[in-house]
Amino acid sequence: MLGFGLAVEPQLWTLLFVMVRVGAAFVAAPVFGAVSVPATVRVTLSAAIGVLVMGSMPIAAPTQVFAFTTFLAIAAEALVGLALGFILQIAFAAPLVASEIIGGSMGLSFATMIDPQRGAASPALGTFLSVLLTLLFLSVDGHLILVDLIARSYELLPPGAAWLGANAIRNIAMFGGYAFLAGFLLALPVGFLLLCLNLVVGMLSRSAPALNLFAVGLPASLAVGVIALFVAMPAMGDYMLVIVREALDAAKTLVLG
């Protein structure tokens, strides 16, 4: 018997209670949280994983719906799910940081397109790197590891006692700086070469003031940038795998301590 006096199957309410954490993780996580993924798919996946969690460990739903403790428990479940997805989303911001550094030097900062993850306009180079990172994330079964972490989170953070401590919140905030560090390291090979090119063009402008920098510097930066991206792409791909592993390790640390 629930708080509003209706006799409802307890397993149904337990499933809805479990789906709060799973659904919050899918809303914040990359791939699952993309705007191109319909809400029906997210709800269906949340229900399927909720059934899996209920079959693997005993979980009881709150006895009353309209109670302050129930609202606190639901907020705690949503907080844990959002934290798991947000950690991965931080790592997926690294390609956007790298594209701003590279695109500004190449003269491609004005070229934008719709990001399939966020559904908003972003640099074209950043969208390309984000798609590449997403494919690498799927190739190492990152989506399956995320589902496994969500299921295992109920062992360390059981429903009703799932509040994250101050250290966990601080670690998430500190991990936010990793997006800038990873983006800088991702853009370092191409960015350093473009910086050297800009120094050469600056020296030419001082030695030959009549030289039109827009007619020489912009095509040269674009050509050198494209060639440098082609040459450095294997190394950038390897470092993107490092970014994926760091994000999954950070999420695992949040769940398992």
Automatic annotation (TrEMBL):
<keyword id="KW-0282">Flagellum</keyword>
<keyword id="KW-0966">Cell projection</keyword>
<dbReference type="GO" id="GO:0006605">
    <property type="term" value="P:protein targeting"/>
</dbReference>
<feature type="transmembrane region" description="Helical">
    <location>
        <begin position="95"/>
        <end position="114"/>
    </location>
</feature>
<dbReference type="InterPro" id="IPR002010">
    <property type="entry name" value="T3SS_IM_R"/>
</dbReference>
<feature type="transmembrane region" description="Helical">
    <location>
        <begin position="172"/>
        <end position="201"/>
    </location>
</feature>
<feature type="transmembrane region" description="Helical">
    <location>
        <begin position="126"/>
        <end position="151"/>
    </location>
</feature>
<dbReference type="GO" id="GO:0005886">
    <property type="term" value="C:plasma membrane"/>
</dbReference>
<dbReference type="Pfam" id="PF01311">
    <property type="entry name" value="Bac_export_1"/>
</dbReference>
<keyword id="KW-1003">Cell membrane</keyword>
<protein>
    <recommendedName>
        <fullName>Flagellar biosynthetic protein FliR</fullName>
    </recommendedName>
</protein>
<keyword id="KW-0812">Transmembrane</keyword>
<keyword id="KW-0975">Bacterial flagellum</keyword>
<feature type="transmembrane region" description="Helical">
    <location>
        <begin position="213"/>
        <end position="235"/>
    </location>
</feature>
<feature type="transmembrane region" description="Helical">
    <location>
        <begin position="12"/>
        <end position="32"/>
    </location>
</feature>
<comment type="similarity">
    <text>Belongs to the FliR/MopE/SpaR family.</text>
</comment>
<keyword id="KW-1133">Transmembrane helix</keyword>
<dbReference type="GO" id="GO:0009425">
    <property type="term" value="C:bacterial-type flagellum basal body"/>
</dbReference>
<keyword id="KW-0969">Cilium</keyword>
<comment type="function">
    <text>Role in flagellar biosynthesis.</text>
</comment>
<keyword id="KW-0472">Membrane</keyword>
<feature type="transmembrane region" description="Helical">
    <location>
        <begin position="39"/>
        <end position="59"/>
    </location>
</feature>
<dbReference type="GO" id="GO:0044780">
    <property type="term" value="P:bacterial-type flagellum assembly"/>
</dbReference>
<dbReference type="InterPro" id="IPR006303">
    <property type="entry name" value="FliR"/>
</dbReference>
<feature type="transmembrane region" description="Helical">
    <location>
        <begin position="65"/>
        <end position="88"/>
    </location>
</feature>
